[in-house]
Amino acid sequence: MTSVVGIDVAKHSLDIATLQANGKHRTKSKLANTPAGFRDVERWLEQYAEPAAWIVMEATGIYHEAVAEYLYGLGYRVCVMNPARIASYAQSELLRGKTDRTDAKLLATYGQRHVDQLRAWIPTPPAQKRLQALVRRLQDLQEIEQMERNRLEVSDTSVQASIHELLAHIERQIAETLRAIKQHIDDDPDLRGRRDLLVS
Q: Is the domain of 53 the same as that of 140?
């Protein structure tokens, strides 16, 4: 039986579980979602999982990325699941309790029962990760700009100068971020090739 470990990832913590042959789960709770915590997970895996184990976790914004990359680097097969699929599975199993530990058990059980359907996750290449970070920052700045423009329309004249000053700063930041995106793409042959292909 291929061993499967479920990891519930939160912003600051990790909970891990694996389903044992007797049907019970072995768990470890509240490990730090930090490099030191990753080493604790590694030690736990060395003790309770096989080297070819699957590690199943949900996509949690950016919080799962560092631990997924760490475990991938150790040679484990990592599967990052869509949270909607796990939620649907929990409903089908009539599971109502929701804690980090029960989520880790749920991920381990799901992975064990559907091991043939697990798909290996591969880390995003560093150049693409940097591009994604720049694009996310650009989107954040554009949202802030829109909020300030909306405020400008309804604000008292006593605060409009402050809003205009902030908008000017945001516009400079947007321009700098756009330049950084263009430069990053120009500097990376793979990204540049894809851009050229899309443009053509």
A: no
Q: Output the CA torsion sign for 30, 96, 24, 66.
A: negative
- pLDDT per residue, tens digit, the chain (200 aa), is 568 999 999 999 999 999 888 888 999 999 999 999 999 999 999 999 988 899 999 998 788 999 999 999 999 999 999 888 888 887 777 665 565 568 899 999 989 988 898 999 999 888 888 998 999 999 999 999 999 999 998 888 899 999 999 999 999 999 999 999 999 999 988 888 887 776 65
Helix 126-154 crosses helix 157-187 at what angle (to 10 degrees)? 160
- Residue 123, both tokens: 């880390």
Same domain, 25 and 111: yes
Give all strands of the β-sheet with 77-81 in edge-to-edge order: 25-32, 13-19, 4-9, 54-58, 77-81
SS3 helix, strand, coil % of the chain, rounded to 5? 60, 15, 25
- Domain hosting 194: range is 126-199
What sign does the CA torsion over 36, 51, 72, 27 have? negative
| Residue 89 sits in the same domain as residue 150 | no
Domain count, the chain: 2
Residue pointed to by tokens 């443009």: 199
